[in-house]
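The following block was generated as part of the benchmark described in Methods. Ligand: pyridoxal-5'-phosphate.
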Amino acid sequence: MSDPYAWIEQSLNTIHQARWHRRVLAIDGMAGPVVQVNGRRLVNFASNDYLGLAGHPQIVEGAIAAIRLYGTGSTGSRLLSGHRVLHSELEGAIARLKKTEDAIVFSSGYLANIGTISALVNHRDLILADEYNHASLKNGATLSGATVVVYAHGNVEELANLLAEHRENYRRCLILTDGVFGMDGDVCALPEILDLADQQSAMVMIDEAHSVGVLGKTGAGCAEHFGCSGRSLVQMGTLSKAFASLGGYVAGSAALIDFLRNRAPSWIYTTGLSPADTAAALAAIAILQQEPQRLKQLDQNVHYLSERLDYLLADLSFKQAANFKRLPTDSAIVCVQVKDAATVLALSKKLKDLGVFVSAVRPPTVPVSRLRMSVMATHTSAHIDYLIAALKDCLLDDA
Ligand SMILES: *Cc1c(COP(=O)(O)O)cnc(C)c1O
């Protein structure tokens, strides 16, 4: 008899040969703009902790106080086992931030997406989705059983054509898009998408994972950034990036949220967010509101890094410059495209040796490899200068 698991080793070999194999880096100590790895300090450009809150004492104390008061687990599904007042306080705080009637908190952003999409549409319905959408939106779309039609990244004209062509053949229609695209850093054309949706009676669901706590005057995300907060739309986001905790949410009309409490399987059939995570997210939203200068500092840091990268890339020899390209950004994600997976991997390794943690993102996650830098409000200009100096060393070394 042949070993029914033998294919796994073969598959792994293929993954290695394509240089697609990844492993996890173990980090010691507190989250922050500088982290410890094997006793070495690394300036950290690989964290989604955009506001620099994951090690904030007020949030740590909030989480500890919630554990002391309520214990560690939330002991069951909220519908069956009940929830803590903290859960509704957090949902209230999210709704106020997003200026929506209500909000529902899921145990992760991933669960928020798969549960919400499969509650909103089924096999009688149509989903139109940006090709660069996050995996959780894609998986949610597949799980829902709806017909999924993908439009080219950011191509509103193609979206309009697809709507005109297909909309009438389906009962409901849902347009799915990331707010900020996590592997590129650009932003979706929300006002245009909402206009099209209005014309064709389509729902819109936006994933604000990389935009809440980053974009908008109060950090409410893309909807606020574009002045679309008052329009009908399903605003999903995560508590695990700028809000330094774990969990996801959907904000929208009272009817939408009540419907999700009754129909989203990934909310109904899973354990509620732990008291510590709930309290941490509540404290993070409070700090965002108390310290709006964090948003400004984050924006300044993104501009400073982008500018320094452009100077550096402009200094490269003609031959080398063709291999590197900074992608335009509207967010805290700054990417430099690198011609192939082997080069980006070597660069990221060399940067680590020089004391900088930058992720190398490769196919199949993205079509073209890139160095992906996430900026934090708590990076200093010295941290950014250090990254630029290290990158300069790598690129000149390479010439
Ligand atoms: C991170 C992320 C998620 C998942 O959120 P988690 O809370 O980490 O599960 C969903 N969508 C996008 C665009 C993300 O970047």
